[in-house]
Amino acid sequence: QVQLVESGGGLVQAGESLRLSCTASERDGSSLSYVMGWFRQAPGKEREFVAGINNSARSGGIDRYGDSVMGRFTISRGSSKNTVHLQMDSMKPEDTAVYYCAAKYDAPVVATTPSHYEWWGQGTQVTVSS
């Protein structure tokens, strides 16, 4: 029902920055509110919650971060309520992973488990060299 389009992945050195973007597009062209978030998965590791934001106008938006990225990454809403950006600063080699955009119907809280999300992007590779 929802198509997620990601951009911004790439290769950087430790200490540098990257900015990821994701847009959720409804197949029928209608407008809905979504919780949108980012997960990452490195080889041999479980998928990890990075950041998410509640896009509900009623709440004004609630953002939430994984412990490993708190203070370094920032999620924000674009001009469209179905678009989010992930600003990644002070990147570390441990941030290397495939980053996935995910979305679900809007809710009062931001879910942190992958099973709660309905739609997923294809993933974009982020590599941080030492």
Molecular structure report:
The chain is mainly β and 130 residues long. Helix content is 0%, strand content 51%. The chain is built from no helices and eleven strands. A hairpin with a 6-residue loop joins strand 4 (34-41) and strand 5 (48-54). The protein starts with a strand and ends with a strand.
Give a short synopsis of this structure.
With 130 residues, the protein is mainly beta. It has strands spanning 2-7, 10-13, 18-26, 34-41, 48-54, 62-65, 73-77, 83-88, 97-105, 119-120, 124-129.
Instruction: Report the uncertain regions.
Output: none
Principal-axis shape: globular
The largest β sheet comes out as:
7 strands, mixed
Distance between the termini: 40 Å
Q: Classify the helix fraction into a percent range.
A: under 10%
Record field, number of beta strands:
11
* Beta-strand residue fraction: over 45%
Radius of gyration over all CA atoms, rounded = 14 Å
- Order of H and E elements: EEEEEEEEEEE
Structural class: mainly beta
Number of helices: 0
- Average of the residue pLDDT scores: 90
List the helices and strands and how they pair.
Layout: E1 2-7, E2 10-13, E3 18-26, E4 34-41, E5 48-54, E6 62-65, E7 73-77, E8 83-88, E9 97-105, E10 119-120, E11 124-129
Question: What are the salient characteristics of this protein?
Answer:
about 130 residues, mainly beta, seven-stranded mixed β-sheet, 11 strands
